[in-house]
Amino acid sequence: MEVQAVRKRTLPTLTLLCLMTGTLLAADDPFVGKWKLNLAKSNVDGEQLKIEDLGGNSYKLTSHNASSTIRADGTDQPDQFGTTTAIALIGSNAWRMVVKKDSKVAQSMTFTLSPHGTIQIKGTNSRPDGSTSDWDAELRRVGSGSGWAGTWEEVKGKGTFSHELDIEAYESEGLTFKSPDYPDVVSMMFDGKDYGAVGPDTSSNEALFSGKRVDEHSFKLTYKRNGQVMQNRTYQVSPDGKTLTITTIETQESGQTHEEVRIYDKL
Question: What mean pLDDT is predicted for residues 129-156?
Answer without folding.
Answer: 84
